[in-house]
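> forwarded from #structure-qc
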């Protein structure tokens, strides 16, 4: 799935970049580049957005070329003057003309989300979706299976694991299976303990407090029809948990300084490296909040429980670093002998240090000191 957008106006494209995911949105500034992409055998966008601010050509000439190419993709043409377009001349195109002046982007994106959601449901089930959770061990295979199984279920999911086990990667994987065309809204709960955090999360209206010179929609608004990921949820204060309860129950909330109710429907993912049951027993997590966020609990295994995955993890990391070097058997065995309290994040940091220290050596050398310096 993808969306092609043609515009030389960065402000216009920024609206779409803010809403749609990087992998879903393909930007073009020059018309012939977009036409070439559409003419390729691999391009199969669900939606084509054309702005009347473009370089090297006019929107009419582009529509003529799309007619010649027998384009069947849904086309949205944004123009400042609808009267300049003779829609009858392009009746063979699946064309909708939208007046740019006074456009409400929230309403527009809500309609597009609905359209794209119907498109997704028509697609055959994909057998593979890229996932950064590397490993062939039984524990990692079960983790990926569980994530895939619960991805499209209507439930909140809590991800529990030690630091560095890949909780955010798991959240991204869940999101990509549910809302591939949308950005996931991620927030570290440590940032929500202040009044500023409350404002950023729920949004505020102009004049709600000193220096609030414009309306701010807030993260909850941005998460509508997408995924809201609360990382380190154990750091959420009991008072903020109370604010969250009505939102999680009804989808309703208010901007700071506003009396009007707003609605946001989203998929909730949370993550922690502390046991929420123990925190609930210590009265750090409210029981009613716990039951709202914990329909499904998925545990990410620490690296010490799947040390056999270290060779594959290292290979993945070296490819990501675009390094032609490899680790020798002795180095891999040394890495597999350590207990990795910082898990995969610590492993990657160690391999990066070994790469730097190896300099011109043909292989990545690993020493005892490289590991136990952590």
């Amino acid at each position: 799935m993808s969306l092609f957008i043609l515009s030389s106006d960065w402000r216009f494209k920024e609206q779409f970049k803010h809403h749609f995911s990087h992998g879903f949105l393909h930007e073009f500034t020059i018309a012939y580049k977009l036409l070439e992409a559409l003419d390729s055998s691999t391009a199969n966008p669900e939606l084509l957005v054309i702005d009347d601010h473009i370089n090297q050509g006019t929107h009419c000439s582009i529509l003529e070329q799309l007619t010649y190419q027998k384009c069947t993709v849904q086309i949205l043409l944004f123009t400042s003057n609808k009267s300049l377009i003779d829609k009858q001349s392009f009746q063979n195109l699946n064309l909708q003309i939208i007046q740019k002046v006074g456009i409400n982007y929230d309403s527009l994106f809500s309609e597009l989300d609905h359209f794209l959601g119907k498109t997704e449901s028509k697609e055959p089930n994909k057998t593979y979706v890229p996932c950064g959770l590397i490993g062939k061990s039984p524990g990692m295979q079960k983790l990926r299976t569980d994530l895939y199984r619960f991805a499209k279920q209507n439930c909140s999911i809590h991800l529990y694991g030690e630091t560095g086990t890949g909780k955010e990667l798991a959240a991204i994987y869940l999101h990509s299976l549910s809302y591939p065309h949308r950005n996931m809204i991620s927030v570290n709960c440590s940032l929500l303990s202040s009044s500023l955090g409350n404002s950023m999360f729920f949004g505020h209206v102009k004049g709600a407090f000193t220096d609030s010179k414009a309306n701010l929609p807030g993260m909850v608004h941005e998460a509508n029809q997408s995924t809201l990921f609360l990382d380190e949820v154990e750091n959420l204060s009991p008072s903020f948990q109370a604010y969250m309860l009505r939102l999680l129950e009804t989808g309703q909330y208010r901007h700071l300084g506003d009396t009007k109710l707003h609605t946001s429907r989203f998929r909730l993912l949370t993550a922690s490296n502390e046991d929420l049951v123990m925190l609930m027993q210590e009265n750090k997590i409210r029981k009613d909040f716990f039951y709202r966020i914990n329909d499904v609990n998925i545990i990410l295994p620490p690296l010490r429980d799947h040390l056999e995955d270290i060779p594959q993890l290292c290979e993945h990391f070296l490819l990501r670093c675009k390094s032609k070097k490899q680790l020798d058997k002795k180095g891999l065995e040394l890495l597999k002998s350590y207990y990795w309290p910082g898990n995969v994040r610590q492993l990657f940091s160690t391999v990066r240090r070994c790469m730097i220290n190896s300099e011109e050596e043909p292989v990545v050398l690993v020493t005892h000191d490289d590991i136990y310096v952590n």
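QC bot note: The CA atoms of residues 139 and 301 lie 7 Å apart. The two ends are 42 Å apart (CA to CA).
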